[in-house]
Amino acid sequence: MNGWDVRVVGADGPVVRAAVDIDPAHPVLEGHYPGFPILPGLYLVEYVHSLVRATRGVRRPVALERVRFAAPVYGGDTVDLAAELSEKDGVLRCAATASVGERTVAQIRLRYATGGVR
Q1: I want to staple 51 with a disulfide (CB 3.0 to 4.6 A). Which of 18, 34, 46, 66 is the partner?
Q2: pTM above 0.85, yes or no
Q3: Please, are residues 19 and 79 in contact by the beta-carbon 8 Å criterion?
Q4: Is the domain 7-113 a CATH 3.40.50.300 member?
């Protein structure tokens, strides 16, 4: 458990799933926010991107279409990711939800170019 490893745990049609264990000793938690350590939201975006990269082989998104952070993530939490992927005309879209238990912590939409750009 290092706060960064995204474990792909399954796929059901266009939906791929992963989990990330957040190490309470991860150094980023010390400085974000002092006295109230939470995972920076950018890490959730990176976790979703890592899931898409692991399952579809794309290297980089061309757009972060939308992100909504709904609740904090703490050290010791396990973040569950569910990403619905759809591809049309050389564009891969990802609509993902990150949750901890029953609590939605973020909704993230990424867009990738698949026509020769990986």
Answers
A1: 18
A2: yes
A3: yes
A4: no
